[in-house]
Amino acid sequence: MAFPPEFITRTKAILGAEYEQLEEALSADAPVSIRMNRKKSDYTPAGEPVPWSHTGYYLPERLSFTFDPLFHAGHYYVQEASSMFLEQAVRQLINEPVTCLDLCASPGGKSTLLLSTLPEGSLLVSNEIIRTRSHILAENLSKWGYPASIVTNNDPTELGELTHFFDVIVTDVPCSGEGMFRKDAGSMDEWSPANVELCAGRQRRILNDVWNALKPGGLLIYSTCTYNTEEDEENVQYIVEQLGAEPVSLDIPDTWQISGPLKYNHPVYRFFPHKTKGEGFFLAVLRKDEGEIIRPRQSKDKKGKDKTKAPAVPVQAETWIQHKDQYQFEVRGETVRAFPKEYYPLLQQLYSLLKVIGAGITLGEVKGKDLIPDQSLALSYHLNREVFSSCEINWEEAIRYLRKEALVLPPDLPRGYVLLTYKGAALGFVKHLGNRANNLYPQEWRIRSGYLPDKVRLL
């Protein structure tokens, strides 16, 4: 790999003699790792466990993820191993239900990890400022299947108006991407010292914009995928000096080979590819001062009060999920949703202040007198399978379904909405008409590739 000369000079300055080892590691193949969804699967992949993750595994080879129906069914998430270290901060420091914000969340790796790791009864708000990416985020969270989740599409300044709203804020901030050079050669083309400075300044603005939304005593988890101190230790020092936060230590075994600070003396956690099996990553945890008091900002109701009577929830919708007494059902436009009752007042507040892309379980869409079941329902672990006819399909049929192609089901199958399963996993719905089946897989989710590899490697 031909690294930018200034990157070499700067990184040698912070690593010294270790730089040659880093360069050698970056010339090797990147490890492949996944994290299992234990609400959907108890399968243990062949491969070495990721030491800092209860459900992470290194794979001996890269699989054909695009052509694995279980990947699309949310049974696992393909995530870089170093970034799974977020799990340690959650497990060691958060012991009761919280309201958590994942501020820069797309495509969803850390959000799916948070849903799996936060204490039962927690609520996660996952935000992405870029609209197209926010829909990718919503898709990945729907596939993961957890109900206590909200996806928003807002600027950090708008989230900062939610004074003292969150117990935990995770900020995996946009960075210069030095730690991803091995996986993304394009990131090298965009790298420059000027871009490092630009990113460091943008990160501080993001932190300032959202700081008001963190409760006194709450935790900020700050991370980047870069090596330089400007975006890492210097920004941690900024949070300490300018925002008055206190760094928090984690208990980490020496055998994990995670490095400490290169500047100042705060507890921070650095991942270098020549020491740990993964890409470059940096993480620090900071606690907000308990005594901080900020006057609430004056927020305007951006949508105004809707004084029209809410449409009635179709009766059958409440039978489509398990534990229906735990949910509040609503109809917004043509969309029917179920959301955990405990947090429904907070959802109502967010509707008025933020752009909510998705929330809870989308049960279906009202079309005239019909209610069409939604893909989010199919992939929720609270789906009540007993109310739907189901049909087990093979791999070839599953790929046709995921490409949104036509399917022919057994003629003796009851007509109406049918849940397709693959290896027992819920995959999605079709409407069986007898001689054919209407494919209800979301158009924007479909596998676009018409290519099939000669050898398909599946989990």
Automatic annotation (TrEMBL):
<dbReference type="GO" id="GO:0008173">
    <property type="term" value="F:RNA methyltransferase activity"/>
</dbReference>
<keyword id="KW-0949">S-adenosyl-L-methionine</keyword>
<dbReference type="Pfam" id="PF13636">
    <property type="entry name" value="Methyltranf_PUA"/>
</dbReference>
<dbReference type="Pfam" id="PF01189">
    <property type="entry name" value="Methyltr_RsmB-F"/>
</dbReference>
<keyword id="KW-0808">Transferase</keyword>
<protein>
    <submittedName>
        <fullName>16S rRNA C967 or C1407 C5-methylase (RsmB/RsmF family)/NOL1/NOP2/fmu family ribosome biogenesis protein</fullName>
    </submittedName>
</protein>
<feature type="binding site">
    <location>
        <position position="155"/>
    </location>
    <ligand>
        <name>S-adenosyl-L-methionine</name>
    </ligand>
</feature>
<dbReference type="InterPro" id="IPR001678">
    <property type="entry name" value="MeTrfase_RsmB-F_NOP2_dom"/>
</dbReference>
<dbReference type="InterPro" id="IPR029063">
    <property type="entry name" value="SAM-dependent_MTases_sf"/>
</dbReference>
<keyword id="KW-0489">Methyltransferase</keyword>
<dbReference type="GO" id="GO:0003723">
    <property type="term" value="F:RNA binding"/>
</dbReference>
<dbReference type="InterPro" id="IPR049560">
    <property type="entry name" value="MeTrfase_RsmB-F_NOP2_cat"/>
</dbReference>
<dbReference type="Pfam" id="PF17125">
    <property type="entry name" value="Methyltr_RsmF_N"/>
</dbReference>
<feature type="binding site">
    <location>
        <position position="172"/>
    </location>
    <ligand>
        <name>S-adenosyl-L-methionine</name>
    </ligand>
</feature>
<dbReference type="GO" id="GO:0001510">
    <property type="term" value="P:RNA methylation"/>
</dbReference>
<dbReference type="InterPro" id="IPR027391">
    <property type="entry name" value="Nol1_Nop2_Fmu_2"/>
</dbReference>
<keyword id="KW-0963">Cytoplasm</keyword>
<feature type="domain" description="SAM-dependent MTase RsmB/NOP-type">
    <location>
        <begin position="1"/>
        <end position="289"/>
    </location>
</feature>
<dbReference type="InterPro" id="IPR031341">
    <property type="entry name" value="Methyltr_RsmF_N"/>
</dbReference>
<comment type="similarity">
    <text>Belongs to the class I-like SAM-binding methyltransferase superfamily. RsmB/NOP family.</text>
</comment>
<dbReference type="InterPro" id="IPR023267">
    <property type="entry name" value="RCMT"/>
</dbReference>
<feature type="binding site">
    <location>
        <position position="128"/>
    </location>
    <ligand>
        <name>S-adenosyl-L-methionine</name>
    </ligand>
</feature>
<keyword id="KW-0694">RNA-binding</keyword>
<feature type="active site" description="Nucleophile">
    <location>
        <position position="225"/>
    </location>
</feature>
